[in-house]
Every structure is written in structure tokens, then in C-alpha cells.
Amino acid sequence: MSNKSKEINKEMTVWGVSFQMLLFLIPFIILFVFIHFYFYPAFLLPINGIIMIIIGLCLIIIGLIIYFKTLFVINKAYNSGKLVTTGTFAYVRHPLYSGFILFIIPGIVCLFNSWILFFIPLFYYIIFKIMIKKEEDYCIKKFGEEYIDYKMRVNAIFPKIKKYNKHTMIKESVDYGNWVPRNLLYPILVIMLVLFIISIFPLFLIVRIILWVLTAIFFLAFLYLFYLYYQFSKNDKELQYKIWDLVIEKLLWNGIGKALDIGTGNGALAIRLAKNHPESKLYGIDYWGKGWNYSKLICERNAKIEGVAGDIIFQKASASNLPFNDGEFDAIVSNFVFHEVRDIKDKTKVLKESFRVLKKGGVFALQDTFKNKKKFGTFDSLIKKIKNWNVQEINFENLIEKIEIPKLIKSEFNKAVVLYGIK
Ligand SMILES: C[S@@+](CC[C@H](N)C(=O)[O-])C[C@H]1O[C@@H](n2cnc3c(N)ncnc32)[C@H](O)[C@@H]1O
Fold it and tell me: What distances in angstroms separate CA 286 from CA 2, 25, 251, one per listed residue?
């Protein structure tokens, strides 16, 4: 094992975050077991107990086979410092967790024949989805692009029928991410389920009604976000692609010189520009915070797949304090970033910072919720401000007038505007 590997290994033991997960899960196990026995036989399933026992035992046996098969290689894999993608790992990224969540725990639950206990594997799954990021980030740090490829093609928990084969890496596809971070969905689901479960207890009717109303609100919020997530992912990310294309279309650039993509995410705009303008030099910055599923490594991987790896530099930095000189760039682009910046309250200051690095005569195309008064002040005052930063020409286009957006999520984009022009 290399020294670098040894160093990285110190950050996480072979058990990953499994003990932390267990710590979160134990209160839920106690709660559901308590509910099951306290209200017994209220939650029994209307299925013959023998059938449930047979199903349960089969699940437990499958789970144990997966568990022991994995246990056999996991220590070796950890100590070798190499990414293991064979055996159970060829079908699923986290076979130990998968064994417990899909087989062993549901199997044990079947023996009790009680539907309320099925909340235990469900909660385990949600806790897993929230906490596994730490383990995944560790693997990305340790194995780099190799792990990203593996992650893109093998599911975390639900096994794929087709075995992973790292030698087919050539057929890689790019990953430009989703503007709705998945990490946002799971906490909402947990809160909703917890509220619902508390409402099962024999509380005052008024308290139960309040809990049901709150459950319904969280449920609707979850459905809405899930729908939004789905809209951004479906048809090969069609909607996201259309918006990126619009930003690029509005940039009146001849492709000579240097351009910067502020808050690049997984590099979508920077890579598009690099492909359109082979003579140019591109920069993409982002703070790649924990709340998102974006990273510098994925940017570099995407650039490599798209054949522009040598033309773009991706750099970790905050949009509020760009590590570039005044007037360094011939063009700047950005998409849905300024409103996200947390380190400055006044988002117009972040915008001003972007214009600082743009040279006189340089071009810009910046898309964001610029009509959101709370974040940017009134739109008129924003345009006036920008003009005062020595900007010669500024135009704008409302996103919903340029791009067809499904009705249900249209309101999300009401305040979205592409600002473009020349400094
Ligand atoms: C909705 S995503 C958009 C990503 C990308 N522009 C795209 O269109 O796919 C918002 C991005 O803003 C980035 N971001 C948030 N705060 C930032 C900051 N202070 N500096 C740089 N990037 C930031 C996030 O990391 C994330 O990549």
C-alpha cells in the first residue's frame, strides 16, 4: 500500500460509517419494536405466519451469504489500497449494507409478521443515503476517477443484474449532475415518516391532527422536490441542457482569450464553451460544498470524456472572492449560482465580484433568479447597479419565455433571467 493510501486510510476505518449509522438507527429500532409490542396485534399482516417465516428465512439466508462473501474480501481490499470491483462488489457498491437493508433486516421483520416493523429497514435505507456520502467522498479521494466510474455504473444498494467490468470504461458517460441535490430529499422523507409515526400514538386528537397536517405538508414537499429532480434528470437531462444552451447562446463571444464559468458544478458550461471554442482557455471555479453532488474530479472526468481536458482548469474557490486579477477574462458565464452563495448576504456583491474579473469589452451571460427581490433587490435597481459597474451594454431574457417548462415546476423559474451583454 502506498504512503498516500496509508494517509487516506487513517481518515476512515474498514467499517466506514457503519457504527455511526447504527447509532442513529438504534432509537428507531427501539421505537418500532416498542410500538409493535405495545399495540400488539394491531399491526399484524393479514398473511399466514408460516408463509412469512419461510420468506423471512430465505431473505436472511441470502443476506448472510452476501454478508460473508463480502466480509471475506473487505479486509483484504481495504489493506491492499486497491479498489475491489469483483465478487459482490461487481453488482452493488455497498454489499454489506445492501445485505442488511434488503435481506437480513426485512427477513427478521418477516418473522414477526408486523408491517410497522418494515419501517426499520426503510429508516436504515434513508440513514444510509444521508450518511454514506462521507464514505463515498473518502473512496473518491482514495481511488479518484476509478471510483467515479464505478459509482456511475453500479448502484449503491440495489444490485444490478449486469456485472461491472472496469475494462469497458471507454463507454463512459458524462455526469453533469442535478440541480436538486439528492441529499435534500432524504431528510424531508425522514421528518415526514417520524411525524407520521408519532401520530400513531394515542395522543390528544388535536395533536394528532396537527401531526397529520405536518406529515401531509412534508409529503407534498417531498413529492414536489422529487418531481423537480425527475424533471431535471429525465430524457438525458433535457431541461438542464436547454438552459445551459441558452446561456451559451447568449454569450456574444468570438472564442478568443480566456473565459470563466462561475459555480461550474460538474463543468457543464465550461466544457460546452471549450468544445465550441477550441482556441480558448477555460476556467471553472466552484466551492464544491457538501450539500451538492458536484466535484472537481467529476469536472475533470467530464472534460476528459468530452475531449477538452487540456483546455480547462478547474479550481476550488468561492464566487464571492475570485482568485483572479481585475479584468483577467474575456468572457464570464454562470448558471444558477449567485443566489446559492452563502458567504455574503448581499448577492449583488457576488455579482459585482464576477464583473471585476471581466475585462473592458469582455462579454457575459449569467443566468440566475435575478428577479428575486429578497436576494437581489428590485430588478430595475439591479440593472442600474450593474450599469454603474462600467458595463456598456446589458440585455436580459426571462427564462420562462425562452424555454418550455412543465407547468407544475414553472413557478420555480418565474424569477429566472439571463443577463447578457458587454462590459
Ligand atoms: C444549482 S448548482 C449549478 C451548477 C452549475 N452552474 C450548473 O449549471 O450545473 C449551484 C452551484 O453553485 C455552487 N456554489 C454555491 N455557493 C458557491 C460559492 N460560494 N462559490 C462557488 N460556487 C458556489 C454549488 O457548488 C453548485 O455547484
Answer: 30, 34, 20
Residue 243 CA, closest ligand 1 atom number: 8
Structure confidence at residue 4 as a pLDDT band (50, 70, 90): low
List CB contacts of 5: < 8 A, sequence separation 6 or more: 81, 142
**Which residues, at least 6 apart from 308, have a Cβ–Cβ distance to it below 8 Å?**
271, 274, 275, 282
Secondary element (H or E) of residue 316: strand 312-316
Q: Pick the closest to residue 131 from 17, 295, 23 (CA basis).
A: 17
- What DSSP assignment string belongs to 261-289? EET-TTTHHHHHHHHH-TTSEEEEEE---
Atom of ligand 1 minimally distant from the CA of 334:
6
CA of 295 to the centre of ligand 1 (A): 10
Secondary structure of residue 127 in the 3-state scheme: helix
Q: Which contacts of 378-381 are long-range, i.e. CB under 8 A and separated by 24 or more positions? A: 379/417
Give me the half-sphere count of Cα atoms (radius 13 Å) on the Cβ side of residue 194.
12
CA distance 129 to 183: 8
Report which protein residue has its CA nearest ligand 1's atom 26.
265
**Full set of structural domains in the chain with CATH:** 3-172 (1.20.120), 236-422 (3.40.50.150)
Contact 69, 77 (CB under 8 A): no
Q: Which residue is closest in CA terms to ligand 1's atom 14? A: 263
pLDDT, residue 170, reads 46
Ligand 1 atom at minimum distance from 244 CA: 8
pLDDT tens digits along 323-376: 999 999 999 999 999 999 998 889 999 999 999 999 999 999 999 999 999 999
286 vs 345: CA distance, rounded Å: 18
d(CA 117, CA 211): 21
307 vs 174, 241, 278, 310, CA distance in Å? 11, 18, 10, 8
CA of 256 to the centre of ligand 1 (A): 25
CA of 106 to the centre of ligand 1 (A): 39
- Is it true that the peptide bond before 41 is cis, omega within 30 degrees of 0? yes
Closest ligand 1 atom number to CA of residue 289: 25
Question: What's the average model confidence in pLDDT over 16-20?
Answer: 89
